[in-house]
């Protein structure tokens, strides 16, 4: 198993540094064990579990009244179902051939989990933006989920099969070529590499239609405007002279509405405990910054598709005055869906697992990333991670892309995923495994189409469960 360039000898904690030739040899040797053609196609295991049963098992620890919203969002289309079915695909990938070449995995690397975010220097950077399932594992698991997501999205857009295959090939080819570039770079240059949105704009201008280009520019402008001040304007109102988060249940529910009357003091004491615990996970300079803010208000917020039902909060902090807000998002971190197949995280606290994985994979991470444990409203101690709610975050509008625009987007996502893996894994070994030809690309394009068929079968089973009343679904939220 190759886990990166340098490897740590377990006996004495020594870091070993095999030569580039040895690392390349390890990558080529992996081909003998798992030929690149072995990744092609998809056949479900004979003992594959019922997908509806697996989804129900995931929801046991979630907030009961929010689960129908999750189902409603997954019910929209096979593509939205795919977004919420990372656990199903993890179980399927566990039965597939493994290269043994490991990197830090996103764990849910579908095309909608990429996007823009503001770097500490305030420039917008493109990359992965969801790390709830992050865990070290075989690099190809992320690439397979990315390729499959383009096949599923292409069907959603009613592209024909040759168009979908070209898009999936573009994503995997871009990943392979970028990995070769990173393998040839100095370690520091790999670490510092990033894809600024300004570069994206130049690349997109030559590939998208005029309509897509205008939409892209509007999206960038919208992302630049998304910050705590914007969130404050959109999500709060003045009540008795103080800013309060607007109530919009069940999507946004102020915390006072979830507590018995008269527990405001207990609430504020608990929030102060959370902030103290979270503060200890920040570096000293960022801890100093956080200490300039005090608690203003909090609310439960429904986020995402697959995440719906996990506990997520937004926290309003105030600095010099009411015109100086900091909006934080507190999101529950459960065990990664990869852990049953790849082993438990080395971090006992899953909030830390998410944050450490994000820092390792992202070229530029949110300065307010941290984690804590706390007893939630149900009295159960749970792990959370914290980030800024809005900080230049933006995502592509996949639902309106044309084939050429989606092909360009696939190339960008492939590069970003390769960079994330090169930061954490061994780019030399992975590049050697991938080779200079298209064997891996074509195998994964074939896999993507076959797995899109499986996704449609799972979606049909899920829809039937909703139609027959086995699962409740609330649509339009």
Gist of the model:
The chain is of the alpha+beta class and 477 residues long.
Question: Uncertain spans, ≥5 residues at pLDDT below 50?
Answer: none
The percent of residues in helical segments reads 40-55%
Note the beta-strand portion. 15-25%
Read across the widest sheet, the strand sequence of neighbours is: 10-11-12-13-15-14
Q: What's the count of strands? A: 15
Number of helices: 18
Number of domains: 2
Largest sheet: 6 strands, antiparallel
Please state the overall shape, judged from the principal axes of the Cα atoms: globular
In round numbers, the mean pLDDT is: 93
Radius of gyration: 22 Å
Structure report:
With 477 residues, the protein is α+β, with helices and mostly antiparallel strands. It folds into two domains: 7-58 and 93-223 and 400-467, no CATH class; 228-388, no CATH class. It contains 18 helices and 15 strands. It has helices at residues 20-33, 51-58, 67-74, 78-83, 86-94, 139-156, 161-183, 187-192, 197-205, 210-225, 228-235, 264-279, 284-290, 339-342, 350-361, 403-424, 427-434, 439-467, and strands spanning 7-9, 14-16, 102-105, 114-118, 124-128, 135-138, 195-196, 236-239, 242-245, 252-254, 294-301, 312-318, 325-332, 370-375, 381-388. Strands 10-11-12-13-15-14 form a six-stranded antiparallel β-sheet, sandwiched between helices. A three-stranded antiparallel β-sheet has the order 4-5-7. The longest helix is centred in the C-terminal third of the chain and has 29 residues, at 439-467. The two termini are 44 Å apart.
């Amino acid at each position: 198993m190759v886990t990166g360039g340098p490897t740590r000898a377990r006996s004495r904690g020594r870091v070993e540094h095999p030569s580039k030739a040895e690392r390349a040899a390890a990558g080529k040797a992996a081909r003998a064990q798992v030929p690149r053609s072995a990744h092609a196609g998809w056949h479900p295991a004979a003992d594959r579990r019922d997908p509806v049963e697996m989804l129900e098992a995931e929801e046991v620890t979630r907030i009961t009244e929010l689960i129908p919203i999750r189902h409603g969002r997954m019910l929209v289309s096979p593509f939205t179902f795919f977004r919420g079915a990372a656990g199903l695909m993890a179980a399927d990938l566990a039965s597939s051939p493994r290269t043994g070449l490991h990197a830090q995995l996103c764990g849910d690397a579908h095309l909608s989990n990429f996007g823009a975010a503001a770097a500490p220097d305030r420039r917008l950077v493109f990359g992965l933006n969801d790390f709830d399932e992050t865990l070290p594992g075989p690099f190809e698991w992320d690439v397979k989920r990315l390729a499959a997501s383009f096949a599923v999205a292409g069907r959603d857009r009613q592209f024909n099969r040759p168009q979908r295959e070209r898009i999936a090939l573009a994503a995997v080819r871009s990943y392979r070529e970028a990995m070769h570039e990173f393998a040839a770079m100095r370690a520091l240059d790999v670490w510092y590499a990033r894809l600024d949105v300004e570069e994206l704009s130049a690349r997109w201008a030559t590939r998208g239609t005029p309509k897509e280009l205008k939409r892209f520019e509007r999206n960038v402008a919208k992302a630049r405007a998304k910050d705590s001040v914007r969130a404050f304007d959109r999500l709060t109102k003045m009540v008795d002279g103080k800013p309060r988060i607007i109530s919009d249940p069940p999507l946004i529910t102020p915390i006072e509405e979830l507590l018995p009357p008269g527990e405001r003091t207990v609430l504020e004491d608990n929030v102060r405990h959370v902030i103290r615990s979270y503060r200890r996970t920040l570096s000293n300079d960022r801890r100093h910054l956080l200490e300039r803010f005090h608690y203003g208000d909090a609310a439960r917020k429904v986020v995402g598709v697959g995440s719906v039902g996990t506990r997520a909060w937004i926290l309003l902090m105030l600095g010099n005055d009411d015109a100086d807000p900091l909006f934080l998002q507190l999101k529950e971190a459960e065990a990664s869906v990869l852990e049953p197949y790849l082993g438990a995280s080395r971090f006992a606290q899953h909030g830390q697992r998410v944050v450490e994985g994000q820092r390792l994979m992202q070229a530029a991470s949110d300065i307010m990333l941290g984690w804590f444990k706390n007893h939630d409203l149900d009295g159960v101690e749970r792990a959370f991670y914290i980030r800024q709610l809005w900080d230049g975050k933006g995502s592509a509008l996949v639902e309106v892309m044309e084939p050429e625009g989606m092909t360009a987007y696939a190339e960008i996502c492939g590069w970003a995923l390769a960079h994330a893996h090169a930061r954490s894994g061994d780019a030399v070994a992975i590049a050697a495994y991938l080779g200079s030809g298209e064997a891996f690309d074509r195998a994964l394009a074939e896999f993507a189409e076959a797995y899109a068929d499986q996704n449609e079968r799972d979606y049909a089973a899920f829809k039937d469960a909703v139609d027959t009343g086995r699962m409740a679904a609330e649509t339009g939220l």
